[in-house]
């Protein structure tokens, strides 16, 4: 873990001109349909714009032209045909569980409701995080609330679409602002190449798959109304495999109404949305089908119409379409041909169309572009994978390590950090009034590298020392690690990259391994500390054990061994609590969140902590943690300690005085409590004698923390009484 130490007196050239990028995200996409509809186009655009931030693979539940488009873009595709019935989805879930275990995916993007239903239960069991991209209102009553609870995050096109999931943390990402539209002359030439003549009278366009609830029949019926007599209709879109008779139905309807000569059905036309300026109006007339489908989540066609400067005729009940049509066109009741005809009558007026064009430009003014939308979605994926900033570099950083009497241990941590510094970074080495030669070793590092600066600490406690370092930071983000830790090669990149996201967090919570090598430290390693590898894929048992024991990494639980914080967030939180001799990092993390800050867990920001192998020192350490958690009054820290104290107090009494059923329950609870270390032991190499010490170190930690917590609570109460 330790990098080579430069020779004394040398001044190495600073690191790369720009900070190193974090490794890309290994993304698995599960997509339901193989057609090229709106959600599939959204996916293609996302993967294109995400670029180097992701290494994608796609599993399709239905074959179709989407596969060819993905393969043309160099994306590996596997087709897994899956029917629509509950039994089909259940069998696919079982299959996907095995496939996920064998994959190296860090996060799954479920594109649509069927994809989420097929993969979310399997991923929950395996432990791979899932982000559900919800595009529309389908299956809202039956599936959306259940899927919302199963997935790790929801990306929705609008607040109305997100509502059915029951997630108040759903991230809203609309379809991006379309690419610049061609002008009217270019668009007319484009459509002429595809057999559509424009400019011979007012023309209404409807784009989308030929399915009944899209309202194409409403547009055809509107043409038969006298108010729409001059208008022609161009319908652009492929036939849907689910409704193979729809095209014939629409043609028969047009013939029956006597408007067949004014209706053109083109089939699929590539990039049709860029060439809408040749038309005089665009209609989005989606309606409910009376069952599970209907209503537009957020119509890309509506955005394309506004981009082309064409008035929008939108059916009420489609919230985002209705919003746009209200200012840049006309809103009509769903399935109301007469209302559509009246709207077309008004839109024949060139002045009305011009007012709609100007209004549409205003609607689009603040709309995010493709880069912004993709960056926001990838941020959600990266956060779900616990790898914020994946594929990004970050801003210049200040790194802070506080030392007190660490003679002989300075080089290990400092050399590892210096190897990761960028040209504009700085490294603050705070000597907190050491009485050994720590200061000499720190000064030697400052002489070797101009990015390294030594500070004189106040000599009070670690909280005050860290506050002194934050106050001296030259940059707006500060990363911290402790003197007893050896940062891994991606540690600093894992912290800094999170601050390069489009919506950066205030606090980045890193992770730590612990060393081993003897029975005591190996027992503590498997029994007392969370596992980084488990955090990457936390299965059901791991999550349950983490809730019960507290042995899990969380974005809401800060550990000072590996962390980074924005300086303004440190200021808003009031800094580290100077009264605390221990547990100051967890209390500080709570304060950042309580002051409105946000946090993310970063599994790339990994250090190895050198733990004690002496049982007496271990007991003292945990008693100190418990005491200062109690003194701080942190419910997060105190609650588990009090529960453990109660269990250890009641357990022996119940074993001694309880009946057979009570004793069996107590023993089963104790066995369950120790189950996670046993499960971990299958994958961890430990020295002989380790397993006999596991119950010892578990009890030592729990009792020591509980005793320290009670002592801290009493001290806090005495202090409050005196105050």
Describe this structure in words.
It is built from 28 helices and 21 strands. The protein is an alpha/beta fold and 723 residues long. Strand 1 (25-31), helix 1 and strand 2 (54-60) form a beta-alpha-beta unit. Helix 3 (86-102) packs across helix 4. The chain is elongated and about 95 Å long. 50% of the residues are buried. The model is unreliable at 1-16 (pLDDT under 50).
Task: List the SSEs and their pairings.
Layout: E1 25-31, H1 38-50, E2 54-60, H2 65-72, E3 77-79, H3 86-102, E4 107-111, H4 113-126, E5 130-134, H5 144-150, E6 153-156, H6 159-163, E7 171-172, H7 184-193, E8 203-207, H8 216-223, E9 232-236, H9 246-256, E10 263-267, E11 281-284, H10 300-308, E12 312-315, H11 319-328, E13 329-332, H12 337-347, H13 350-364, H14 370-384, E14 398-403, H15 410-418, E15 426-431, H16 438-448, E16 452-456, H17 462-472, E17 477-480, E18 485-487, H18 491-496, E19 507-514, H19 519-527, H20 532-536, H21 540-549, E20 563-566, H22 567-572, H23 584-594, E21 599-609, H24 615-632, H25 635-657, H26 660-673, H27 675-680, H28 690-722
Parallel strand pairs: 1-2, 1-4, 2-3, 4-5, 5-6, 6-7, 8-9, 8-11, 9-10, 11-12, 12-13, 14-15, 14-17, 15-16, 19-21
Antiparallel strand pairs: 17-20, 18-21, 19-20
Helix pairs in contact: 1-14, 3-4, 8-12, 10-13, 19-28, 24-28, 25-26, 25-28
